[in-house]
Amino acid sequence: MKLPWMSGADKRRWRSTAGLKDLGSRVASWLIGDIASQPGYQPNCGPEEETQHLIPVLVAVNRLGYVTDGSQPGFAGYGYDHHWWEQRAAVSGLVDDPQLRERLVAAAELAGLTVVQHDMTPRRHAEGVPVTRSMGRVYTAFGRFLPVRDLRTVWPPQIIGRRAFDKVAEAWQLTLIDPKWGRDDVLWEALAEVVRQYRLEAVEKEARLSREALSHENLCRRYAYPHLARGLVKEWHEERLNAAIDEAKLSGCTDADIALASGCTCD
């Protein structure tokens, strides 16, 4: 039986957020079922069935800091009422990391997607872009500017905490929409490409830190017995590098790209 309210445990997890990166991590946990309820949604209900195949990429971008609050796949076909329905693939959310926003926008524009972004000053498409239609009637729009009063409904400060809500109110509202009705691959691949960029950079960073840590100069400077410390230092960095490589592979990075990022010259 699903209770009509959010559990105390879930409330504590949401209230522990300090900013958008934390908030994105909680949304990712809700998407995979680790948290039963999300603010702004019916308590104890998970993502809609139609978005199940989008969960991996949505989880990934939320963990990067693009906090999604709505998404739908592209679709064209007969619906529950036996009428013809069409949907544009779309995702909306919040982002306050300038680099992440720039990369999302660049990937979307390269893929020919519609980009709608607002700071707290409404811009074009303030009323939203139609994304669901049937029988000549528009049923859903994405990209509408959300004033603070609406953000309070989606992300109630009494649930996520005042500090996190302040970050929500200051963030850019970013919506990406496939202009082609029914298409359901281009948008999600654009998001996945951004994720892969970050995963390869993580591999590159861990490989660089490993080389620096294992250099003769560093070992002699940091340890009284560098020849004894080397094995433990190498093991610790290899674990971190392997974890980064595993994440890169899960996001779809090729072995060649991973080898290039890690500086491996092996065949």
What does this structure look like?
The protein is an alpha+beta fold. The chain has two domains: 8-184, no CATH class; 194-262. Helix content is 49%, strand content 16%. It has eleven helices and eight strands. The protein has helices spanning 8-15, 20-31, 55-64, 98-110, 148-154, 157-160, 162-170, 186-213, 216-222, 226-250, 255-262; strands at 67-72, 75-78, 84-87, 90-95, 114-118, 129-134, 137-142, 172-177. The strands form two sheets. A four-stranded antiparallel β-sheet has the order 1-4-8-5. The protein has a four-stranded antiparallel β-sheet with strand order 2-3-6-7, with no helix packed on it. Helix 3 crosses helix 8 and helix 4 (98-110) crosses helix 8. The radius of gyration is 22 Å and the shape is globular. The mean pLDDT is 92.
Quaternary state reads single chain
Low-confidence stretches: none
Order of helices and strands: HHHEEEEHEEEHHHEHHHH
How many strand units?
8
How many domains is the backbone divided into?
Answer: 2
Helix content: 40-55%
End-to-end CA span: 56 Å
Question: What's the main sheet like?
Answer: 4 strands, antiparallel
Q: Strand order of the main beta sheet, please? A: 1-4-8-5
- Structural class based on helices, strands and sheet pairing: alpha+beta
**Coarse morphology:** globular
What percentage of amino acids are in beta strands? 15-25%
Rounded to an integer in angstroms, the radius of gyration calculated over CA atoms is 22 Å
Mean pLDDT: 92
Number of distinct helices = 11
